[in-house]
Design brief:
By secondary structure, the protein is of the alpha/beta class. It has helices at residues 6-15, 28-31, 35-48, 180-200, 220-233, 261-270, 274-282, 284-294, 300-303, 307-318, 334-354, 358-382, 396-405, 454-462, 469-473; strands spanning 104-113, 142-143, 153-154, 212-216, 244-245, 389-394, 422-429, 435-441, 444-445, 452-453. Strand 4 (212-216), helix 5 (220-233) and strand 5 (244-245) form a beta-alpha-beta unit. Pfam families: His_Phos_2.
Length: 476
């Protein structure tokens, strides 16, 4: 179920005309609402009109959860939870409705985002915007060693005397580092996955390198999540070796990290038109308040979109940290934070789904990954696939592109991929020997991909692979 931030949802319930028309001068709330954002809101209207929206807890609203890995029992199990996305599990899984007697699960590809981490973006004066204790990662041992040598691990130290201390928080955490809470979520994710695909369905027999291939980005946090998943599936993997497949960071297709100047030009173009710039102008008051509190005025990375604000707020709220307060005592308000969450959803949907040429942009930047997925399923079709499960651990950029390419945005506007967000692609074999694909997004079957022939699914993947991709990316 897709839901909206409390302030916007309640405003729609109370004020939005039945026609869901454009903002008017008689409604001050919508005068300040970007026209494209209003269109996104209207897309959600049918889900909430006439329903009572509760905002007793600011972050635990009908928008979803932004301050805990645990979804309250009073919410639907598959409520959007940015801190820990819902995922496949034995309690809420049902067999494909189209599966005939004798059908069996025979192959899978899974892609997910890593779990909770520290902020990946830092304020110019980061230190003063955190509690004096800063961020503590001493409860999480990070091992980095060469095979056959001492099992060394690294600990982050942040000296109080360091001349650049103002640029980082106090404590024992680096930027973008998986937290102990994120690792715990990964372990539980693995437990739930195993309870379904081993215990309930009997598809996977054991955690082994013959049946399971794990692919990650080069970032420590994705590799640590992979380890947590495997441990959750089978506790006896602790202390054992298990290979993770990566690609060189400069050409890695999973985050994705390969360069594509043509894609950059396309995105720059559609972020230079009113459909995009209006929302920046219409939220100028919000931006001024955030700049005054956080010291981000005049910085391009903080003014071209709300990505950095979204990251620094969600990383804090998901970890149980307070919102930033500066040395004067001025703090980011919860109301402004909720507005940033709503804008973040709007921006991600616009960039990867709604903007003119967003499809081309997604295909250019994730075409290599779509090609890899297509090759996986074609290899299975040919009988040459040796793995039963290929499991990818990537990033929000991986998930939003996959969702866009698979057409999720044609069903409903896309939201920012939550931590632990997951797309499962199952292949079922019928009693007649036919192969069908079912796709689940965060534990729920995707409406348009509940039961499609494998040839049709491969064609969908291949349709997202531009011809002469390398040449296109490097053309002027």
């Amino acid at each position: 179920m897709l839901l909206l931030p409390f302030g916007i949802a309640s405003a729609i319930r109370d004020f939005l005309p039945s026609s869901c028309g454009p903002p008017t001068a008689s409604n001050n709330l919508f005068v300040k609402t970007p026209s494209m954002l209003l269109q996104l809101i209207c897309g959600f209207l049918i889900l909430i009109r006439g329903e009572r929206v509760s905002g007793a807890i600011t972050f635990n609203t009908s928008a979803g959860i932004y301050n805990s890995s645990q979804t309250p029992s009073s919410f639907p199990w598959n409520t959007y939870n940015y801190c820990n996305a819902p995922h496949v599990n034995a309690d809420h899984y049902s067999l494909p409705v189209n599966a005939t007697k004798g059908s069996e699960l025979v192959y899978m590809n899974v892609m997910m985002r890593h779990h909770k981490r520290t902020p990946d973006n830092l304020y110019p004066n980061e230190n003063e915007l955190n509690p004096s204790a800063g961020w503590d990662c001493s409860d999480f041992i990070q091992e980095n060693y060469g095979g056959g040598t001492a099992r060394v691990f690294h600990e982050v130290t942040i000296p109080s005397w360091h001349p650049f201390l103002s640029q980082i928080w106090n404590g024992t955490c680096d930027a973008g580092q998986l937290t102990a809470g994120g690792l715990a979520d990964a372990v539980q994710h693995g437990k739930d996955f195993w309870a379904l695909y081993h215990t309930k369905l009997g598809f996977l027999k054991s955690v082994n390198t013959k049946d399971i291939l794990m692919r990650t980005s080069t970032e420590d946090r994705t590799q640590q999540v992979a380890g947590g998943l495997l441990f959750g599936m089978d506790h006896t993997t602790a202390g054992k070796s298990f290979p993770l497949v990566t690609q060189p960071s400069g050409i890695d297709s999973l985050p994705p990290d390969y360069s594509c100047s043509k894609a950059n030009n396309i995105r720059n173009a559609y972020q230079s038109v009113p459909a995009w710039t209006d929302h920046l102008e219409e939220n100028a008051d919000l931006k001024a308040r955030l700049d005054a509190t956080l010291g981000t005025a005049g910085l391009d990375a903080w003014s071209s979109w709300y990505d950095h604000f979204f990251d620094t707020f969600t990383s804090r709220t998901c970890a149980g940290h307070p919102l930033p307060c500066n040395s004067t005592g001025a703090c980011v308000s919860q109301a402004d934070t909720n507005q940033v969450f709503a804008i973040g959803d709007f921006e991600y949907n616009y960039i990867w789904n709604a903007a003119q040429n967003s499809t081309t942009y997604t295909q250019l930047t994730f075409g290599v990954m779509f090609a890899e997925l297509a090759m996986n399923f074609k290899l299975f079709q040919s009988g040459g696939e040796t793995f039963k499960l290929r499991f990818y651990v990537g990033h929000d950029g991986s998930m939003i592109r996959l969702a866009s390419g698979l057409g999720f945005g044609k069903v409903a506007p896309l939201r920012w991929p939550a931590l632990g967000s997951e797309v499962v692609m199952e292949v079922w074999k019928t009693s007649k020997g036919e192969h069908f694909v079912r796709v689940l997004h965060e534990g729920t079957p995707v409406q348009t991909l509940e039961w499609v022939g494998i040839d049709e699914f491969v064609a969908l993947l291949q349709s997202n692979v531009p011809d002469n991709l390398f040449e296109q990316c490097n053309s002027s």
